[in-house]
Structures are given as structure tokens and as C-alpha cells.
Amino acid sequence: MQERASTATKERLNRRSDARRRASSDLRQTRQKLAQGSSIQPEFEYEMLSMFVRNELSAAFTLAGLSAIFSLASMYWAPVPQAIMWLFMVIGSKVFQLELCRRFQNTPRDEINLRLWRRRLFTSELISGLAWAGFALIGFGSAATGVPELQFSSHVFLFAALIVVLAIRMTFASTVIPILYAGTIPMTVAVIARLLMIPESFYIALALMAIGVHIYFIFLARGLNSTALAMLEFRAQKDDLIAELEEEKSFSDEARRRAESANMAKSRFLATMSHELRTPLNAIMGFSEVMKTEILGPISNPTYKDYAGSIHDSGRHLLNLINEILDLSRIEAGRYELHEEPIRLTDVAEDCCRLLKLRSDSKGLAVLEDLDFNLPQVWADERAIRQVCLNLISNALKFTPKGGRVTVTVGPAADGGQILSVRDTGPGIPDEEIPKVMQAFGQGSLAHETAEGGTGLGLPIVKNLIELHGGIFELRSKLRRGTEAIVYLPPQRVLESLPPLQPLGHERHRRYGKDATELVIEPASDTRPSRLLSGRYRSPDDAIARLHLKTNV
Questions:
Q1: Are residues 470 and 544 in the same domain?
Q2: Is residue 258 one of the residues assigned to a domain?
Q3: Judgement on whether residues 313 and 363 belong to the same structural domain of the protein
């Protein structure tokens, strides 16, 4: 009791400490959010920045190559020095940004100040965005822009370049929205300003379209950002769930280990106590039987003789209880060994019905046998199967009122196995109490009121013995209509039927009454020593025959 109380106290303390840890963790995360000026959790903020850095490093030459293409194209309407100068500005800003990304990636996570690095990356992206915005100023005020064809081509190219850059930056920088703003707004503003400098409806329409395209890409980037953030949250939840499952599994393993240790200790204790109790109990039963049968002389007072009989009966009941406890303890401890051999379920059931016939007659119960003697043998432990059958029939006799009926059935199963069924007309068991009666020392309420005394160990022993054989034990019951106990042995336990023996040598038949026949088969030569082999079998018409074979050794 003290150990259980201390265990419960430890569990309560552990739960309280877990709650305190979670509360302190939530408070620490809230403080970090306030300190960093971001609504995203710190671990998610780091992951989002890391995704941006990885995107930039993986496409290090993409924007540089694209800027070279734009620079070459701009030479068609702008002076070459301006185009080359703009190209160097873009490449220089990109190199600066890539260097920052490499430093971020090489810095250990514990040493990273998220607020500082977010500001650095934002600044580098702003510089890159301003450099790209310079593309809208290439060729501004040059003589080539006065040519209508060149003016139209250059401004349409600017609009197309803006769409391409917006799409690329949305793909790379959508994980950090402020950085996306820093890299795209300068170029969008520059292109719109360049388009609005020409007071024509076409260019004004292009400027409005540029605004709409930018807004569309911003909404699209926000959706990608939300998706990435949700992915990180789900991954964090998955990791937390896995950690909790591993923790709970460790607790479960520890609890199972303690339960197995306690069960083993209980089984050892019961086994030891059972052995210790059986020794004096055998002496009590022996002496009480001597007194009851008056072996050493008559007892003058008949009351003492009745007392001796009661002592002997009580001792036998207690011995049966101890044997059941010992069997159950061996099964639970995994020490019950099956001694398997070919047996017939019908023979075992018939013997058990015969053994309990006196008990059924004394209660006025009818025991009906529905046995299929054509069934093949099964590979099983005869003692265990006999104990199963005796327990089931004894329970049926115990719980069936006077004038009732008990039906014992042995037959084939649909899949080739064999079934032993014991059905009675007793009070039945409520459905909610069936799991209870299948446990050790468990008894149903209605059955407990109407039946003889019992320990509640019979059905658990039956269930464990059948499971040791790889079978299934099922209990079906209808309240106030009766109970049916079904034992199923799988097809793997059923032995194949052997072909009939062919007669050898001289055969001689003799009749032993109406239904009995002795068949003696003698070899042609009887010069060598021989031995007698005797067996019993059932003929289809239930006639019992004895087969004596004299065969040469």
C-alpha cells in the first residue's frame, strides 16, 4: 500500500512539473516573440530564414545570368556604359547578399540572433532591389528613347522584366514577407514611374497593370508563406507527438515491467503457499478419512463421525481450490508444459460425462450427449483437455437448476477444426458481466446467488489452457435462458485419418454378444516370437470391437 501511494504521489508530482514546464515554455516563447518583434515562434522564424537562405544559395547564378540578359537587351535602346554599369551594380549587390547567406548558414543555431540577422538580410535584399530598380532608369533621357519604335519596345520589355523578377523573387523570398517587399517594391515603383512619364493611355494602362501584377504576386506570396508556416507547425506537432509517444511508451514499458514483476511475484507466492498448504492439508484429509471410515476402530459418538466427514469434504474442496490456484499460477508464469499426444475429443467428453453422472443424477439434471465419433484424433494434452471438459460440465451442472438440461456436443468446425460445446438451461449471465467471469475469481451476480459455492477460477483456467493449444474459448449467454461454452481447436491440431489396415494371413472372427466382435489375425508362420497388440475402435453403427493382432517381432 505504501509503495502504491508513493507511486501515485510521484505521478502527481510529475504531472505538476510537466504543467509548470509547459507554462514556462509558453511564457518564454511569448517573451521571445515580443523581443524579436515577430508574431512567429522563434524556432519557426529560424526555419523561415533558413529556407530563404537555402533558396538564395541554390539559385546563386540565376539572377546574375538574368541580369546579364537584361543588360544585353537594354543595349538595344540605351547606351552601353549605362547597361554595363547597371550589370555590375546588380552583380555586386548579389555577391554581398550571397556572402551574408553563407555566413548565416555556417553560424551555429545557438549563436544566431534572429532579430539582427533578419535586419541584415532585409538590408541586403533592399540593396539588391534598388539595384534592380536601376534597370528602369537605363537609357532615360537618351536620344534613342525619342524613336517611337524603340520607346515602345523598351517600355514593354521593362514591363515584362518586372513580371519575371516579381515571379522569381516571390518564389525565393516568400518565406520572409518583409524581405520580399524590400526586393520587389523598389523595382515596381521605378517601372511604374518610368511608364507614367509618357502621357499616353497605353503606358498608363501598363502602369496600372504593373500595380495589379505586383499586388497579385504579394497575395500569392502570402499564401505560400502561410503554407510554409503551416508545414513547419505540422512538423513541430509531429515531432512533439513522436516525443510524447516515445515518453508514454517508456512509461508504458516501465508499467508493464512492474506489472509483470508483480504478476510473477504473485504467481510465485501463490505457488509457494499452495505447496506449503497442501502438505498439512493432506495430513488433515488422511486423518479425517481414517476417522470417518473407522479404520482404527469404531467411534462411539456418531456426531464425531459426521464432523470427520465434514472435515474431509472441506479439505477436499480446499485441495481442489489450491490445485486450481496452482494451475493458474503455472499458466500465468509460463511454466505450464503441454504433454501432447493423439486423443479423441469424443472419448474425453464421454468419460467426463460418465464421471459426473452421479452428480447430475443427484440434482435431477438431464445430460445429453451429441458426440460425433467419426471425427479424427487431435494432437493435444489429454490432461488439459480433460480438465477443460470437466470444468465446463461442472459449471453447467452447478449453475443449472433442478430439472434442467445440459447438452455436451463434439463436432467438426467449418474450417476443419473441432468444437466442444457445453450448453445449459441455467440462469444465464448478463452481457456486461461476461468479461468479469472470464477473470480470475470473477463471478456473475445472478449466477452467484443461485449456484453452489465456487472460486471463479474454472473459466480462466479453461481459457488459458485452450489458448496454450492455439484455440479459442468463447462464452455465449442469454439471461434466464442459459449459457453455452464453446471450445475451438484449430485445424492444425486435427490429425489426418489413416487408411484402414489390410488383413494379413489367416483371419478368425468370434462373436462376443450382439454388438461386440473380437478379430484375431494370425500370421502364416508362427515360428518366431510374437506380441499382442490390442486396440479399440468405433464402427459406424456404434458397435465396439476389439482388435488383437499377433504379429512377428
A1: no
A2: no
A3: no
pTM over 0.85: no
Residues 146 and 181 reside in one and the same domain = yes
Is the Cβ–Cβ distance between 242 and 304 less than 8 Å? Answer: no
- Rounded Cα distance, 481 and 297, in Å: 51
Query: Nearest 5 degrees, angle CA 424-CA 428-CA 429?
Result: 135
> Grid coordinates representing 224?
505560400
- Using only C-alpha atoms, the chain has a radius of gyration, in whole angstroms, of 47
Rounded to an integer, what distance in angstroms lies between the CA atom of residue 174 and that of residue 291? Answer: 99
What are the pLDDT tens digits along the chain (553 aa)? Answer: 444 445 555 555 555 556 555 555 554 554 444 444 455 666 678 888 888 898 888 888 888 888 899 989 888 888 888 889 999 999 999 999 999 999 998 988 888 888 899 899 999 999 999 999 988 888 776 655 556 677 788 888 888 998 998 888 888 888 888 899 998 999 999 999 988 888 889 989 999 999 999 999 999 988 888 888 888 888 888 888 898 888 888 888 898 899 888 877 877 776 677 677 777 888 888 888 888 888 888 887 888 888 888 888 888 778 777 777 777 777 776 767 888 999 999 999 999 999 898 889 988 999 999 999 999 999 999 989 999 999 999 989 988 988 899 999 999 999 999 999 999 998 888 888 888 888 877 676 665 555 455 667 788 889 999 999 999 999 999 888 899 999 999 999 999 754 444 444 444 433 333 344 344 434 433 433 333 333 333 333 333 333 333 333 3
82 vs 177: CA distance, rounded Å? 31
- C-alpha–C-alpha distance, residues 367 and 408, integer Å: 7
Q: Is 342 exposed, middle or buried (0-12, 13-18, 19+ CB in 10 A)?
A: exposed
393 and 352 part of one domain: yes
138 found inside a domain: yes
Distance CA 548, CA 536 (A): 9
For 37: left if phi > 0, alpha if psi spans -120 to 50, otherwise beta; the answer is left
Within this chain, do residues 419 and 308 fall inside the same structural domain, yes or no?
no
Residue 250 covered by a domain: no
Look at the block and give the residue holding cell 483371419.
507
Whether 351 and 471 share a structural domain: yes
CATH code for the domain of 473? 3.30.565.10
Report d(CA 346, CA 60) in Å as an integer. 85
- The range of the structural domain enclosing residue 442 comes to 341-493
How many distinct structural domains can be found in the chain? 5
CA distance 369 to 341: 24
* CA atoms of 174 and 222, how far apart (whole Å): 7
* Nearest C-alpha neighbor of 404 from the set 482, 345, 476: 482
d(CA 126, CA 120): 10
Residues 30 and 43 in one domain: no
Residues 77 and 158 in one domain: yes
**Residue 1 grid coordinates:** 500500500
Neighbours of 348 (CB within 10 A): 22
Helical H segments across 338-416, by residue range: 345-355, 357-363, 382-399
345 CB neighbour count, 10 Å cutoff = 25
Distance, CA of 55 to CA of 176 (rounded, Å):
12
Q: Which residues contact 506 (CB under 8 A, 6 or more apart)?
A: 521, 522, 523, 524
